[in-house]
């Protein structure tokens, strides 16, 4: 029976590193949402704040939405990087790293309170 090292390319570790980096990015985003919950007084289990109940609803919702969008994209990103990396690990890892960087800017732009700022750098992630 062949071992995993005979199935995966030697550079596949870069793919694994990129997947782990995306997990850390999402973990950090989750902390930003927790800080925003405290700052804007939006308590669990409320997912989105209502403007009729909270004057800072838009600010909180922008932070929440930036994180949630990254969670929504995570399965597709993982599948494409993990499977593509089996044939082209360096290309997939490089594009994955580029995507992670743009996701950071997507989130910070969104979390600023102006949803259009998410597209300043974040829009380029979809090229990856």
TrEMBL record:
* Pathway where this protein functions: Lipid metabolism; arachidonate metabolism; Lipid metabolism; leukotriene C4 biosynthesis
What is the reaction catalyzed?
leukotriene C4 = leukotriene A4 + glutathione; 15-deoxy-Delta(12,14)-prostaglandin J2 + glutathione = 15-deoxy-Delta(12,14)-prostaglandin J2-S-(R)-glutathione
Provide an example Pfam family for this protein: MAPEG
Instruction: Keyword check for Electron transport, yes or no.
Output: no
BP term (GO), one = lipid metabolic process
- Name a single GO cellular component: endoplasmic reticulum
Membrane topology term reads: Multi-pass membrane protein
Q: Which UniProt keywords apply?
A: Lipid metabolism, Lipoprotein, Lyase, Membrane, Mitochondrion, Mitochondrion outer membrane, Oxidoreductase, Palmitate, Transferase, Transmembrane, Transmembrane helix
Localisation: Mitochondrion outer membrane
Tell me the InterPro entries matching this sequence: MAPEG, MAPEG-like_dom_sf, Membr-assoc_MAPEG
SUPFAM superfamilies according to UniProt: MAPEG domain-like
Which Gene3D superfamilies does the record associate with it?
Membrane associated eicosanoid/glutathione metabolism-like domain
Instruction: Output the superkingdom of the source species.
Output: Eukaryota
Q: What is the E.C. number?
A: 4.4.1.20
Q: Tell me one GO molecular function of this protein.
A: leukotriene-C4 synthase activity
UniProt entry tagged with the keyword Coiled coil: no
Report TM segments: 12-31, 77-101
Instruction: Kindly report, in one word, the top-level EC class recorded for this enzyme.
Output: lyase
Q: Tell me the PANTHER family matching this sequence.
A: MICROSOMAL GLUTATHIONE S-TRANSFERASE
Its protein name is: Glutathione S-transferase 3, mitochondrial
State the organism of origin. Opuntia streptacantha (Prickly pear cactus)
